[in-house]
Input
Amino acid sequence: MTERRRGTVAFMTGGGQHSWQDLVLAQFHRVHRDLSAALDGADRALLDRRPAVGANSVGWLAWRIARGQDRNLSELLKVPQLWLTAGWSERFGRPADAGDTGYGHSPAEAAAFRGPAAEVLSGYLSATYRLAQRYLARAPDDDLRRSSTSPTLGNTHTVAERLTGLLAEGYAHAGQVALLLAQASPEGSATP
Output
């Protein structure tokens, strides 16, 4: 991570002073790193396996994180989603629908999800992480207070609320992925 010091909003750490952009980027990095490590070498059967009725698969959880990041960060940057412009919907065999993010999926829709190979999932996660880097490199110091209306969902939240939601969801789903992979592992543990 490149260190930058700017603006009046800064956080003190053992390594010095960092901006809110640095702090948020470090959190996106952690989610990306942990999910990428967890997905490494996972086969499609494992990605599509649901441990119980009503539970989500590893593939759906990872896809949901990437789709949420793509939609929100693209909207904050005011650019089209990678899902639509970079061929990701085709690679996933899903419709080129900006609203197809997993948000509002019924249990049946989540259960029907069949994802691509782990390398494709990881590739999309990496692409959305680069989108986070791009947004945070450009985000003005006062951007956390900005109201942002989602053209996809039609709701309005501050940038701070959107980023907090993305990171909370990223950590929650990454934890679910780690647990599901640990349960499926012959050794009984998988540490990303």
